[in-house]
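pinning this so it doesn't scroll away 📌
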Amino acid sequence: MRVNETLITAIVSDEENRLYAASFDLETKLLNVSGVVQVDIGEGASFGSLIVLLSCPDARQQVPAQFEGYPVSIKLLED
């Protein structure tokens, strides 16, 4: 591996670590909110965002639009 590749790998790994930490922190903050089921990380084109899964739409009010610099989206679980 060349120096540039090593640097890029380190930067990506650091960003992923921050993203996973933000996901954990948001989940810890929201799991006591009625209707919040889980916090996940976006995949593919949505990677770099946090997704909050809700069992009822009333919990939307408790979900921030951003958390620790990452955009947050909401998905409602279907019955």
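📌 and the second one:
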Amino acid sequence: MYLGALLSALVGMQLPGDRALLVKESLSFKPQVRAGDTVTLTAAIAHKSEATRILDLAVTVEANGEQVAEGEVQLQVRI
């Protein structure tokens, strides 16, 4: 749940700011993340639609250098 919250915060506060609306989030988890682990979340734009203002992001989550989750996020940029 915590990793999903980090992803939501990334979309809502960082990409592209407070004008992003999280539409869909899908994560596949691998090993557990434990308290004290250093977590790195990486997102790259996989697809962009100018007409609908939708961005699809490919997401990778690492803890202490080991991949612990991957997935995709869809967000809409509001005007």
